Amino acid sequence: MTLYRLRRSAVRPPDATKSVRSHFVLLRACKRSRAADAMENGCASHGDDNLAFLQKMLDDYKGQDNFNRVARKVTAVSATDQRIVVELTVEHEHVNGKGTLHGGQTASLVDIVTARAVGMTVRDRGMVSVELAVSYLLPVKLGETILIEGIVLKCGRNIAFTECEFRRKTDGALVAKGKHTLAFMHKPVANQF
């Protein structure tokens, strides 16, 4: 939300009744809803098509042979304008030599899931990573299912701040937590997802 600072001289016209009236007009003009700010910054609400849009983005990974293939087995659970939840059952291709979810797989999923959370509202601009960090709290064993929640903390004009949580589906235990900062590209990018 944009904050405005009023100078006393700007709201003190010679006529006292005009002063009060202009002060309220100025205050009304300064009050802006989060939705208006989001629309201005390219973070518009898309309503009920969020889950279908998320599933389409995830389905696009199934045919890719680039690094995004790490998200092939991810399925959509829920989606709103600034929060998504996806699910992954850990299979042999996702584990390290100890039979637990590979740290690189986890970091890649933080990148992908948080970018998709931002992509729920910013659908026409490419994004690049600025910073990504992951904390690994518990191991996830082969065959376990995890729920991954991506949340947009702030979506600005040029940068988005996100976080991500990985939880075991069986007991809700927090197994990993990530944060991801993304910068928007200035020109629209075709096939960014």
Automatic annotation (TrEMBL):
InterPro entries assigned: ACOT13, HotDog_dom_sf, PAAI_dom, Thioestr_dom
Q: Give UniProt keywords alphabetically.
A: Hydrolase
Picking any one GO molecular function of the record gives:
fatty acyl-CoA hydrolase activity
Has keyword Hydrolase? yes
- Tell me which domain of life the UniProt entry assigns to the organism this sequence originates from: Eukaryota
Q: Where is the Thioesterase domain?
A: 99-172
Q: In which family does this protein belong, per the annotation?
A: Belongs to the thioesterase PaaI family.
Name this polypeptide is given: 4HBT domain-containing protein
